[in-house]
């Protein structure tokens, strides 16, 4: 089994002291390639540096998450444009809208999102998108330019069936995380994950966040890490009513085609 973790925040400080052990455990659990999320002005260059240090194993995205939208200025735009030119950077983002936390004002989030969409239009690379509680505005911004963009993934999808079909109608890929294992807020995903065509479905841990609640025993440190992707894959396979091999093989083929890895 070879899995691809399309969303791992390996620049997070919690991985600073033991990243090589984390990557070793991931490999031992079948995770063959990982895409390191670049989610801020500070972390995006770090994501690229990690990818450059682990050729063939790690790849990167470069972007500014809606939480950090306030840091998006002309200098930041220039930095992202420089980063996305690197061959190890396989997607623009993480960008999008997050009205759940509203850590940045909504007009600021929309501005940073639109700027990064323009970068994706200009460089022709895929997009790595985040949307939470902002579906209508997200669609309103994305829909008019969708046809001009390369591949698009709505990562860590947590929305409704209707929102899922909106994404699929726009020919977006969908990233599923351990959110699906959360009995408090993820059970609806179990019913709709089977509606995602396998050539649009990818899996991710969003490490160190979103430790799957069905991992037993739960590690005492509560840190999620890429090795748990195998657990997420098994849960998704069960919910889709297909074999573990089919989900593993299918999501890996989809991720490799999407990121060109
Ligand atoms: Zn996200």
Q: Can you list the strand order of the major beta sheet?
A: 1-2-3-4-5-6-7-8
Question: Residue ranges: pLDDT <50 for 5 or more in a row?
Answer: none
Quote the distance from N terminus to C terminus.
16 Å
Number of helices: 9
Biggest sheet character:
8 strands, parallel
Helix share bin: 25-40%
Structural class by SSE content:
alpha/beta
Series of H and E elements = EHEHEHEHEHEHEHEHH
Oligomerization state: single chain
Radius of gyration, CA atoms, in whole angstroms: 17 Å
Nearest-integer average pLDDT: 97
Ions, cofactors and other ligands present here are: zinc ion
Number of strands: 8
Give the overall form: globular
User: Could you tell me the strand content as a percent range?
Assistant: 15-25%
